[in-house]
Amino acid sequence: MWKSLASLLKNVFTLTQQTDRNADDIKRLQDEVKDLTEQVRGLAEDVRDLRSEYRHSREVARLERQNLTLRLENALLRTDRAALPSNSDPLEES
Rounded distance, CA 34 to CA 41, Å? Predict the structure, then answer.
């Protein structure tokens, strides 16, 4: 009987220690999850910022291409005008 009582007390003591360790582990894991959640939120914010910068860069590049296209068209029109004979001198028409 004393042997089984000692065994029972030993089991209770062991289970108490395991419960305490498990509680500590749970607390540590909760803290890790909290830290990871904060990191993921920070990364999500960084991704949003990068996406915004990417859109802005794309828009700037589009506007630069449009500007270059208009400059090229303007230069071509000037070249065509310079190549046409001038009709302003009436003596040349005769």
Answer: 11
**What are 11's two structure tokens?**
């089991």
d(CA 5, CA 30): 37
Look up residue 83 and give its two tokens: 């190549």
In the chain the beta strands, taken as DSSP E runs, fall at: none
Which residue range(s) make up the domain with 72? 52-78
Predicted pLDDT at 67: 98
Give the separation between CA 64 and CA 82, rounded to whole angstroms.
27
With respect to residue 44, please indicate whether it lies within any of the assigned structural domains: no
Number of structural domains the chain divides into: 1
Following CA atoms 85, 87, 92, 94 in sequence, which dihedral angle do they give, to the nearest 10 degrees?
A: 120
Q: Dump pLDDT digits (tens) for 39-63.
A: 999 999 999 999 999 999 999 999 9
**pTM of model > 0.90:** no
